Amino acid sequence: MNIKNLISIALRALINNKMRGFLTMLGIIIGVSSVIIMLAIGEGSKQSITGEISNMGSNMIMVQPNYNREGVSKGASSMESLKIKDYKEIELECQYITGASPYVTASGQLIFGSNNHPIRVEGGNENYLDIRKYTIQDGVGFTQSDIKNSAKVCIIGKTVVEKLFTNDEDPIGKIIRYNNIPFQIIGVLKSKGSSTFGQDQDDVMLAPYTTVQKRIVAIDHLHAIFASSLSAEYSSKAMSEITDILERNHKSEEGKESDFTVESQEQILEQINTITTFITILLGSIAGISLLVGGIGIMNIMYVSVTERTKEIGLRMSVGARGKDILSQFLVEAIIISITGGLIGILFGSGVSYIIRLASGWAVTVSTFSVLLSFAVCTITGIFFGWYPAKKAANLDPIEAIRYE
Questions:
Q1: Could you give the 3-state DSSP secondary structure of residue 137?
Q2: CA distances (Å), 94 to each of 59, 62, 87, 125, 398, in order?
Q3: What angle do CA 364, 369, 373 make, to 5 degrees?
Q4: In the chain, domain spans
Q5: What share of the chain is helix, strand, coil (3-state, %, to 5)?
């Protein structure tokens, strides 16, 4: 019996039992669409987070105090391990970085006229904007003179402009107060928008690190040091250089944990990718359970079909149909159910994913891999769960089958 006849017989059988065939497909439709949606959410989140980490800086390397040294959490306020000397020697001696910046931060209140806004000020040098991929839209950046003189100047983000300058004033040149300290606005940053986690990346105020260090928090140490490697492939060499300099300056003892940590952007991306990949697999596996249920539904309905058509099977075998013809007949029927349900499920899942992206603004991405995987799985499901009932039909005794009532 050729494949054309097999498909024709299978379609005729399904048309004769439309509702039963649809309900059987429904399990596959729900399973495939669930897998598509879950993988789309997982993959979209992964791409979005990866993009945001990349947007944090250019081949960035972060040096921070080791807050959990020797298994004990020291707390940020008690860690004073990073000094100006560390930053200067990193910038002077490292061959694999394009620039470095000290980092000091503080929280406070911004005031302009009758408007106020809570803010975290970030202190850096003239390299900080390039390292962190901040772009000035209006105005200018810091100069060496601003750093040297601890100038009371700042650069603000779009959200700060909207919160303080409600009458559409030009903020450039205006004086705002940070915890009663006057700052002149010299620049406004280009908007970055919100992150995947809902954090407003435009709610930022930048100032010279010396200004934050001396005029706001009154400390002589640094909260962190940021650097940018020549390229991603040089990150490990740059990290090694920085580590060697800090171990020398801090007189780190062999076998003991250092009082600093050095971490690259690539390491953060690898950690994030590991976590998001695991979450994506977990979501896909959970959704895959519904595919298993759909496969059991196919097996169940094929058993019913074999029982109902026992006499028909006996008649076919009595006029010359072989066991493999009967096997192929029922197997093709199971495959048609699963493939048709799979195609509908892919369309439905892709449509729902698109609606979720439009309605919620989430990063939802339907990948070619998830579509091909779902289609392959539903085809295998049809073969796997349709095989046993089809084999049972093929092994029926023709005489007993004809006598079956």
A1: strand
A2: 15, 14, 11, 17, 85
A3: 110
A4: 3-52+271-403, 67-258
A5: 60, 20, 25
Is the dihedral angle over the CA atoms 192, 197, 203, 208 positive or is it negative? negative
Instruction: Count Cα neighbours of 104 within 13 Å in the Cβ-side half-sphere.
Output: 25
Kind and range of the H or E run holding 184 = strand 181-189
Q: Find out whether 339 and 378 touch, Cβ atoms under 8 Å.
A: yes
Burial class (CB in 10 A: 0-12, 13-18, 19+), 133: middle
Residues 233-245 have a mean pLDDT of: 88
Summarised one tens digit per residue, pLDDT across range 376-402 is 877 787 777 777 777 777 776 666 656
| Residue in the block written with tokens 């503080």 | 106
Residue 15's identity, in one-letter code, is: I
The full length of the chain comes to 405
Residue type (1 letter), 270: E
Which sign does the torsion angle of CA 123, 127, 133, 136 carry? positive
Q: How many CB atoms lie within 10 A of CB 49?
A: 20
Token pair for residue 213? 């260090």
